[in-house]
Design a protein that fits this description.
Structural class: alpha/beta
Distance between the termini: 77 Å
CATH topology of the largest domain: Rossmann fold
Strand content: 15-25%
Number of strands: 14
Length: 425
């Protein structure tokens, strides 16, 4: 990990580094876009013919029948798990479901004035596609995190896609009662979900993290099929004045082991703590090649001039995962995907079992949205109902506003209800 300071001779270099970090995001997608554009266009135009060709090339599958995972396979995977693993998956699912239930928005109505009722209806999306990565590590937790909020929202059709899914992932699907599961990954899976083929009907929205190819494909199809977010490599920021170097370093290493491109940053004003965290992270990653590479590439310790500057830098970075010292720190946090408070809140607990979703915004997207939630699977439909009394109260003002905008037909539609017509010149 590299130590940088916000004051002194290296202050200008630190300013430049922070500017680059603030502007991180989709730039890395540009390198894979040409290949992804070709794949997406092929699947969109040729349907199953292209999908099966890419499934054979990238997923090692032959024929349409090989793409679909049967319920019997999922049940067998569940039966093959050790009891302790079945219990762990069940506990995680229960935690995630309870949190999603608490998040679910409600339908409501009210009467702001006599004669007018306004409100909203909460309705689920009709279908979603959930992408579950299965590259360097199998991620049954991501299946739980994407499918359970959709179930809580009431989504009728949930299609899972995952390349070479691990037995634990298939078992998690069985636990949730998933019936539609495809052994597909990459840009061709995203294209099939977005545009549909004979084997895989299209969905209304695609959610879930993935590789650069998956993320680039989601960006390409976003105007034709809703997506959750463009999730890039994992990010962690720990902002601490009082933390324990061993615990801070362990969280940095834990998130860094996801991907060689993972971003791991520690922000503090304490020079001694900064040096201790660097040494401990080096020690803890010595037998973890992915984490070691990520920390060498993207590991930073930022020594701020004061606490307020440390907090300002944290919000500028808008990290996916953020750890702070105490609940009082929540008052200054403005931009973060998910916040972990205090020494006992190990970040990996949020990856698996706390309840809040682990599909979180990266690349600074936390400036404008939070993590995946039940809200991503519902739509809010507003409702308004007038009586004669209500339109008499508000209609004249609305008609005047319509005329001010030059929309005479709007004004006439209101005045017709009022028994009045515009006097023509």
């Amino acid at each position: 990990m590299k130590l940088i300071r916000t004051k002194g001779r290296a202050a200008q270099q630190t300013t430049e580094i922070l500017a680059v970090l603030e502007d991180r995001g989709g730039a890395t997608l540009d390198a894979v876009l040409p290949a992804v554009m070709r794949i997406v266009a092929d699947v969109r135009k040729q349907g199953d013919r292209a999908l099966l060709r890419y499934a054979a090339q990238f997923d090692g599958l032959a024929g349409a029948d090989a793409l679909r995972v049967t319920p019997e396979e999922m049940a067998a995977a569940w039966d093959g798990l050790a009891p302790a693993m079945r219990k762990a998956l069940t506990i995680a699912a229960d935690q995630i479901r309870a949190f999603a239930v608490a998040q679910l928005p409600a339908s409501w109505s009210e009467s702001p004035i006599a004669g007018l009722t306004t409100g909203q209806l909460v309705r689920p999306l009709g279908s979603v596609g959930c992408y579950v990565p299965s590259g360097r590590h199998p991620l049954p937790s991501t299946l739980l995190m994407t499918a359970i909020p959709a179930q809580v929202a009431g989504v009728e059709r949930i299609a899972m896609v995952s390349p070479k899914p691990a037995p634990e992932t298939l078992a998690a699907a069985h636990l949730l009662g998933i019936t539609e599961f495809y052994r597909l990954g990459g840009a061709h899976a995203i294209a099939a979900l977005a545009y549909g083929t004979a084997t895989l009907p299209r969905v209304a929205k695609i959610v879930g993290p993935g590789s650069l190819y998956v993320t680039a494909a989601k960006r390409l199809v976003a105007f034709d099929c809703a997506i959750d977010m463009l999730a890039g490599p994992t990010e962690i920021v720990v902002t601490s004045e009082h933390g324990n170097a061993n615990e801070i370093a362990s969280d940095l290493v834990a998130q860094a082991e996801h991907d060689p491109e993972a971003l791991a940053i520690f922000i503090t004003t304490r020079a001694e703590l900064a040096k201790e965290v660097i040494a401990e992270a080096k020690l803890r990653s010595r037998n973890n090649p992915v984490a070691r590479e990520a920390l060498a590439r993207n590991g930073l310790v930022i020594l701020a001039a004061n606490v307020n500057e440390a907090r300002a830098i944290t919000n500028r970075l808008a990290p996916e995962h953020l750890t702070v010292d105490a609940a009082s720190d929540l008052d200054w946090v403005q931009n973060a995907g998910s916040v972990f408070v205090g020494r006992w809140s190990a970040q990996p607990m949020g990856d698996y079992i706390s309840g809040p979703n682990h599909t979180l915004p990266t690349g600074g997207t936390a400036r404008v949205r939070g993590g995946l939630s039940v809200n991503d699977f519902v739509k809010l439909i507003t409702v308004q109902e007038y009586t004669a009394q209500g339109i008499r109260a508000l209609g004249p003002s609305a008609a005047l506003l319509a005329e001010a905008e030059g929309l005479i037909g709007h004004a006439e539609a209101i005045r017709t209800r009022l028994g009045k017509r515009r006097t023509r010149d």
